[in-house]
Design a protein that fits this description.
The chain is α/β, with parallel strands linked by helices. It has 20 helices and twelve strands. Strand 6 and strand 7 form a beta hairpin.
């Protein structure tokens, strides 16, 4: 699948005291010197900045507020207003706020939203700010955790991750089903699971509002391991290769064998997560953020990644979800300090060790929790595998993802072959990419 700086000017009143003895009467009244009242002390108003995220549902509202409280404890003159929107409605929420001139100072951001909001001119260039941090930044963050678009750094991963098959540990142990170690075994285990339980082992989301999730979680991962790529080195779409068709056919074959939860075209990403956490299915292609979600919904559910698969390559998607800084913040200096706080050692260790999510910070990645947590322990392995590919930042990505998804749906319904669907989608991608090259 995927570098403005403002200065804060503080105005201080300059008091000019001119002592002029105009008359004795102006200094004395009734033979006595008047005592002037001391000026009243003025209470300094707090600076307020806003943060808009979608993580209340994933990590808990108390956890997100704790992050703000940690910052405000160190900055008593700052009030951080934490705002939240469900992930499914987040893009529209941020759009509405930005159009109303209320862009948050710091905002959550996904790779596929970047082109739209960068076009609106609301995303600050992080590169000069990062360069000023010098060794502080280099010691803590991998360069691959900074996302560039149009030659500017516009997003920083809050957590770094990949996607793979997650399974219900307790259910597999109860049924005596061995954990799959490759794509062929995955098909075999799904068949065993269905025979043993009468339920489907896995679901994939192909509803329109989840095209990005299918592309990222299921298709891109399978594409990389089949030896393909979304884009070549020149930025041209090449997923309509033989490997691309093979990757798409893999998922359709599972559906044709009745091994996937039915009616994939109507399944959204939230629906598939609910199926897993309610134990209606036993596996799901997803990222490690499923851990905190599952612990809130079903505390007894134990999830783990399978051992990393390998086919023509052993690579995985190098991904993440992150944050961006507003170009229009009224308090850019404080906003940047809060931005840094989000990925600081303190916050990163808390999120990694308490919430069990792979916060994008080198110190956090060395935490012992990676050896203990069944979901986290595979993430460094997946991200370090040769052949991995990062998420691409391409123009009009939302439109391109829709084109991809619509063509996949046509293939799913038998209206096109896998190659025809991918050819049509790739043609549209390249038309859009080429048009932007000419601008």
């Amino acid at each position: 699948m995927y570098k403005r700086k403002s200065k804060i000017g503080l105005r201080f009143p300059v008091v000019l005291i001119i002592v002029a003895m105009l008359s004795v009467g102006t200094l004395f009244a009734g033979g006595r010197q008047e005592k002037k009242a001391a000026p009243a002390e003025t209470k300094k108003e707090k600076v307020t900045i806003t943060f808009l995220g979608w993580w209340d549902d994933e990590y808990g509202k108390d956890t997100m507020q704790k992050i703000a409280d940690m910052f405000m404890e160190k900055h008593p003159d700052v009030q951080v207003k934490m705002l939240n929107s469900p992930h499914s409605a987040f893009e529209d929420k941020l759009l509405a706020m930005s159009q109303a001139g209320e862009t948050p100072d710091v905002m959550g951001m996904e790779f596929n939203w970047v082109p739209r909001f960068d076009k609106m001119g609301i995303l600050a260039n992080l590169e000069p700010l990062i360069e000023k941090e010098g060794d502080y930044w280099k010691e803590r963050y991998n360069p691959g955790w900074t996302g560039y678009y149009g030659g500017r750094a516009v997003i920083q991963w809050l957590y770094a991750m990949s996607y793979g098959p997650v399974y219900n540990v307790g259910k597999f142990e109860e049924l005596g089903i061995n954990v799959p170690t490759d794509w062929n075994e995955l098909e075999e285990r799904l068949a065993q699971y269905k025979n043993a339980t009468g339920k489907y082992g896995m679901a994939i989301p192909l509803a329109k509002d989840s095209f990005a999730h299918f592309l990222l979680y299921s298709y891109f991962t399978r594409l990389i391991q089949a030896g393909g790529a979304l884009l070549d080195k020149e930025g041209t779409a090449v997923f309509n290769s033989e490997a691309g068709a093979r990757a798409l056919q893999y998922w359709k074959n599972l559906a044709d064998k009745d091994l996937l939860y039915p009616d994939a075209l109507s399944l959204s990403d939230p629906m598939t997560i609910e199926l897993l956490t309610s134990e209606e299915i036993g596996m799901l292609m997803i990222g490690p953020f499923i851990g905190p979600i599952a612990r809130q919904r079903n505390p007894d559910l134990k999830l783990s990644y399978t051992p990393p698969f390998e086919d023509a390559t052993g690579g995985f998607v190098s991904s993440g979800s992150g944050a961006s800084l507003s170009k229009n913040s009224r308090n850019p200096g404080i906003a940047w300090e809060f931005f840094k706080h989000l990925i600081s050692d303190e916050v990163a260790l808390m999120m990694t060790e308490e919430v069990k999510t792979p916060w994008a910070n080198k110190k956090a990645f060395s935490s012992p929790v990676y050896d203990e947590d069944p979901l986290l322990k595979q993430i460094p392995v997946m991200l370090s595998r040769p052949g991995g590919q990062p998420l691409p930042f391409v123009p009009e990505l939302g439109d391109l993802i829709n084109s991809f998804g619509e063509n996949v749906q046509a293939y799913w319904m038998g209206q096109k072959t896998a190659k025809e669907a991918l050819d049509d989608a790739a043609d549209h991608w390249n038309e859009v990419i080429e048009a932007y090259r000419k601008k």
